[in-house]
Design brief:
Layout lengths: L1 H15 L3 E4 L14 E4 L3 E6 L4 E13 L6 H22 L5 E11 L10 E13 L7
Parallel strand pairs: 1-2
Antiparallel strand pairs: 2-4, 3-4, 4-6, 5-6
Length: 141
Amino acid sequence: MFRTRLRSFIQQEAEKSGYHFRNGFLYRITRNDLTFPALWMEPPSLTDAIGRHEGRITYHVTLHLITSGKNYDEAEKEAQWENLEKQALTWTQNLLAHDDIFSVDKIRCSPAEFSLTNRGEISLKIEFDTHFIFPLKTSEP
């Protein structure tokens, strides 16, 4: 349930920003027809669960923001990576608007030295932890 919500929230953020959303294990990225800019979401990992009837669930999320790589020089690549970082930080902040998500932390962004596909794109790997508090709010009878 939480995994599905997390994927949905990230997909909504990506599509609102004009990114083509895809998800799956990273080795499958070359089998997909990506339209740039794209966001590739790896399956989230459940890293912590505390509590029985109420508590906290933590997922580790790995995303790849990808844009076309038109033979940029090093300065232009840096500018592209900085734009992708800004986008990633905006999305992680926007996730907090969802009542289900308690916090987002341990955000890490790292530019990729090599392209993920054979199309020569520029990409940025984003990793973070997302915390859900349960039980979810339920309607009063």
